Amino acid sequence: MRHIPRALTALALATTLLAASACGGDSGGGSSSADGGKVTLRFTWWGSDTRTKLTQQVIDAYQKDHPNVTIKGEFGEWSGYWDKLATTVAANDAPDIIQMDEKYLREYADRGALQDLKKAEGLDTGKFEPDTLGAGEFDGGLYGLNAGINSFAVVVNPAAFKTAGVAVPDDTTWTWDDFSRIAAEITTKTGGKITGAGALGTNEAGLNLWARQNGESLWTKDGKVGVSPEKTTDFFKYILKLRDAKAIPSAEAISQDMNASLDQSAFATGKLAMSFIWSNQLVAFSKATGQQLKLLRIPSADGKAADNGSYYKGSMFWSISARSKHQKEAAEFVNYLANSTAAGDVLLAERGVPPNTEVRAAVTPKLQPADAASAKFIQDISKDLGDPSPAPPVGGGQVEKIIQRYTTEVLFGRQAPDAAAKAFLDEVNGELK
Amino acid sequence: MSALGELGSLRGKKPAGQKKDNLAGYLFLAPWLLGLFLITIGPMVASLYLSFTDYNLIQAPQWIGLENFTRMLSDERLHNSLRVTFTYVFVSVPLQLAIALLLAVVLDRGVRGMAFYRSVFYLPSLLGSSVAIAILWRQVFGTTGLLNQVLDVFGIEGKGWISDPSTALGTLVVLNVWTFGSPMVIFLAGLRQIPTMYYEAASVDGAGVLRRFFSITLPLLTPILFFNLVLQIIHAFQSFTQAFVVSGGSGGPSDSTMFFTLYLYDRGFGNFDMGYASAMAWFLLVIIGVFTAANFFASKYWVFYDD
Q1: How far is CA A87 from CA A78, A95, A356, A418, B144, in A?
Q2: Domains in chain B: how many in total?
Q3: Is the alpha carbon torsion for B110, B115, B121, B125 positive or negative?
Q4: What is the Rg, in whole angstroms, of the alpha carbon atoms belonging to chain B?
Q5: Which residues in A lie closer than 8 A to residue B295 (C-beta atoms)?
Q6: Residue A166: CATH number of its domain
Q7: pTM for the full model?
Q8: Which of B244, B182, B285, B264 is nearest to A19 (CA)?
Q9: How many helices (H) and strands (E) does chain A have?
Q10: Is the ipTM of this complex over 0.90?
């Protein structure tokens, strides 16, 4: 009796203690392989089921034309995507072609993980709308090729408005007060079955727009935080106002929704009449809800759409790993994605409106209702756009998680708006490198 | 020749095939030995080195001395993660062991179909730290989850247990307590070792159930209790999967389920701060070491060895 437990204890101790600090093994292995002229490329993206199906179709078509190239798709939800990418890059096992976001572009490029696409053989950017290349360009190189243009917007489920007996507002003149009032009205009139709107502050774009409407911006051109504690406080106060008016769901429901996939989010499952989305997500949300949805401009402070701070964003970028062993083949595939009408015909505007003007012209007549609506929205707001929004500096990729946390703090009443604003800005500043 | 004499001559003689036997022994050990060096000791040494560097996963590490460790002193989120982890360990481990002990005692009394119950109760231990169960947990404690549906039957209005910062950690504590099966099985084995004559003698002297439990079972079981305690504390300090999956990797809502290990992961892979994350890993090793040492020290005063 005496000896067994002691021996067991010692053994268990030895193994568990050892395991404590050795976190994560090395997966090793090469990134891609070539034999007999055959090349295997790995291609990773995040997105909904809709995107995955469309992208796979393009891959299949490309493989048919290029029998020597095999493309292995690796895809997942946004929330897990970046952890996975970071681990594979660290393990020297990065995919050859990477769907990249503005938030992480500098993070990877500044550390030499991405290839300068200006030097890539077989990749042509001649037909791109000139403004659309800028966001992926810095330090004289092009590290991400714009994969589509989008803009932050309010998505509306007209069926929910109808159920509530509320008219869809005129988005060229509506203010934040209108937004709050209309959303609250929907919640009241449906007896809480449908909530008026999703919360602001579940990503940083809302705060950026809010800042831009007040003459500031989330990031400055020289890579600093550009929003003041006062405006951030106002932003959090407004979210509280929405909560108190029951214009948005309960704090618990919002916090739960922050981790939900697009297909399972509150708006996609018909629980909300309005929500804040990126315009290209209209396609996926339309599929998920089975409804004809509508995009509205973001409300403004003064009722003038031109003052609402909207801007064109590269919805996502194509990047090539600097360590890819098949630079040429990877570049050719990215070229196909970006410049061929064959790919455009399948992808349409699901990743945003094609930045290649020729592809855009060719696919416009073929757009499905949702793609067409999002393309038209991008066209419509072109005359009301503000200045381009500076890209986040290195370390800025964390801002989404940080604002989610402080929005939760505020919604649960655990922190006052001014305290949350100060803590938020301190933390974001602390992350910048 | 007597048996003793034979043993003596065996001891004195060096068997010819010993070298060969040793080689075979090492060969049999090789898979484990290789694993130990390649995936445990190697990375540990590497992480010790990295803990003194600024390493962003992509570029080569830069030596910065003790900076990572001094940074921990002023890192509020790290302090919060320590609070969360300690709460989790010191609430869930005692609860888990109490339930395991209770059930072991009940099962040990010769319940019919004990093998069946033992398996059923053990099952959660096998599943407890798996991703599937963590996902299930999200469903059970979600706004429209099973728990709320049950509460609804009784007319109680539920809430989003996992999405409320004040209850999210509680759901993880419940999950850990639920995996009481492995300490329970060890308790059962321990109970089997207690000679029945003690109980018989106590019964003759008129001792009741409670008296027998506190005067015979518990003292004789303290070595097992100690073993379980040490093991479960270490285990709880290292919990990761449950919090990661239940919170969707964020440690949220509001960092309320941000375990130390989860924050370590967030720094390393979310923020590309692998040097700092390595320093945190070694800090955790020290914490666990200190608690284990304290446990061993305290054991002198309450663990009773029956021989």
Answers
A1: 15, 11, 32, 37, 34
A2: 2
A3: positive
A4: 25
A5: none
A6: 3.40.190.10
A7: 0.80
A8: B285
A9: 16, 12
A10: no
